[in-house]
Amino acid sequence: MAAVCFMITLVLYIVATVSFFSYSLRRSEALSKVSLGVTVGGFMFHTIALVMRMVGPSSSAPPSFSDALSFLSWMIILVFLVVEFRHRIHVLGSFMVPLALVSLVSAAALPETVPTLQPVLKTLWFHVTLSMLGTVGFTVAFVAGVMYLIQDRLLKSKQFNVLYSKLPALDFLDHLNQQSIVLGFPLLTLGIVTGAISADFSRGSYVSWNQEQTWALVTWVFYFVVLLGRLTVGWRAKRAAYLTVIGFAGVILTLVGVVLKGHSPLS
Question: The pTM is what?
Answer without folding.
Answer: 0.86
